[in-house]
Amino acid sequence: MTGQTERRPVIIIGAGPVGLALLVALLRRGVPAQLYEALPELSPEARASTFHPRTLEMFDEWGVLEAVLSRGHRVDRLQYWEREGHELIAEFRYDVIAGDTPHPYRLQCPQSVVTRLLKPIAEALAPGCVHMNHTYLAHTDAGDHVVVTLQTPGGLTQVEGAYLCAADGSRSAIRNQLGLRFEGLTYPDRFLLVTSDIDFKQVYPDFASVSYIFDPQEWVIVMQLPDMTRTVFKVQPEEDENEVLNPEQVLRRIRRFTGRTMRFTIFGSSIYSVHQRVAERFRQGRVLLLGDAAHINNPMGGMGMNSGIHDAHCLAEKLALVWHGGHDCLLDEYSDARRTYALETVRSSTHKNYEDMSAQNPEYRHRRNAEFRAIARDRARQRAYLLRTSMMEERISRRA
C-alpha cells in the first residue's frame, strides 16, 4: 500500500464482539482503524456466551485475556445426559488437552460483557476510534479506497478508508448492497433461552457447568455463568411464540424439565430462529465480510461467535501484511480459507450437534450414546473430540 491509501484507516462496521475484536487486533498490529456502530450504546444482547480455548489464546495475544477471564466462568468438563431417567451418558474433561493449549477450559461469559471490555481497550490504543450512533447507509469502492456514507445524529457524513470490513451481523446491509447470496437453510425448530438463578444440581447430581440433555421431543442445554444459569429449550414449530414466552408457560416448561417444584427467579427469556447460511464469498474488491455477516450457523457447540472472532484474527493478520507492503491477494487467501472453514467444519459440526440432540430414531439414539461412551473411555479419542469441539482440530495429529 502506498501514497494516500496508506494514510486511510481500515473501516469496520459493527461493534459486536467480532467487529471490536478486529479493531483491537488491527490496532495491536499497527494498522489504523475506525469502527462505526448504529446503536447509541453497545448492545445488551447476551445470546452468545461460549469462548473456546483457541479464542482465549487470541485474547491473550491481543492483551485482553485477563480482563475477560475475570468476568467469566471457567468450565473444566462437558457432560451429555439422557433426559429420561436423568442418565449421564458421557463426561469429557478439558484437562486431557492441557498439553495442547495454555487454556484447557471453556469460558462462559456473555458477549455483552466482552464487548464492554474490548471497547475501552481499543479506545486506549487509539482514542476516538469507536463511533456510536453512526448507521451505515452505502459505500462506493473507488478501486484504491472506499467511501462510506453514514447517518449520524448531525446528518449524513462520508468517510474514506483503505478497506471496508463488514461485521454488521446476519442482516448485513453491506452484504446486501454487494448483492452477495447468503445461501443455506432455516431450521423448523426454534430455541427458547431462559436466564435464571436455578440450581439444576438438585435434579442432576454432579451436573457440569455445561451440560447437554438429549431428548427426542425437547432437548435442553444448560450453561452456568458467574451470576446466572442459561437454559436453552427446543421449541416445536407449531408452538405459538407469544405463548412460549408467557412467564407462566416458561415456568411450567422448567418445572416439567426438573420434575419437581424448586425455588428460583427467572431473569428473562427470548426465542429465536436458527439458520445455517454462508455468503458466496467473503471478499469483493475492497470490502471484506466476517462474523455473522459472512456466515451463521446452529449455535449448538458455541462455534458461531468463536468462528467470527477467528475470522477477525485471520483478517487482521492479512490486512497487516498488506498494510506493511504485502500483496493484496493475501485478502483472497483470507476469504477462501475462512469460507472453506465455515462450510466444511463449522457447518458440518454444528449440524451434527443438532442431529444428536434432537434424534428421534431409537436405533440412532442407541448408536449415539454408545459412541459418546466409547469416546469418553478412551483418553486419545476424548482429546481428539475436545480439540474438534474447541475448534483446534489441526492439533489432533500433534503429540500431547
Q: What is the topological layout?
A:
Layout: H1 4-7, E1 10-13, H2 17-28, E2 33-36, E3 50-51, H3 53-61, H4 65-69, E4 73-75, E5 77-82, E6 87-93, E7 106-108, H5 111-125, E8 130-131, E9 135-141, E10 146-152, E11 155-161, E12 164-166, H6 173-178, E13 182-196, E14 210-214, E15 220-224, E16 229-235, H7 241-245, H8 247-258, E17 266-279, E18 283-284, E19 287-289, E20 295-296, H9 304-323, H10 330-358, H11 362-377, H12 379-389
Parallel strand pairs: 1-2, 1-12, 2-8, 5-14, 12-19
Antiparallel strand pairs: 3-7, 4-7, 5-6, 9-10, 10-11, 13-16, 13-17, 14-15, 15-16, 17-20, 18-19
Explain what you see.
By secondary structure, this protein is an alpha+beta fold. The protein has a domain at 4-73 and 105-183 and 276-357: FAD/NAD(P)-binding domain. Helix content is 36%, strand content 27%. It contains twelve helices and 20 strands. It has helices at 4-7, 17-28, 53-61, 65-69, 111-125, 173-178, 241-245, 247-258, 304-323, 330-358, 362-377, 379-389; strands at residues 10-13, 33-36, 50-51, 73-75, 77-82, 87-93, 106-108, 130-131, 135-141, 146-152, 155-161, 164-166, 182-196, 210-214, 220-224, 229-235, 266-279, 283-284, 287-289, 295-296. The strands form four sheets. An eight-stranded mixed β-sheet has the order 6-5-14-15-16-13-17-20. It has a six-stranded mixed β-sheet with strand order 8-2-1-12-19-18. Strands 3-7-4 form a three-stranded antiparallel β-sheet. A hairpin with a 5-residue loop joins strand 14 and strand 15. The longest helix is centred in the C-terminal third of the chain and has 29 residues, at 330-358. It is globular. The two termini are 41 Å apart. Residues 1-5 have low confidence and may be disordered.
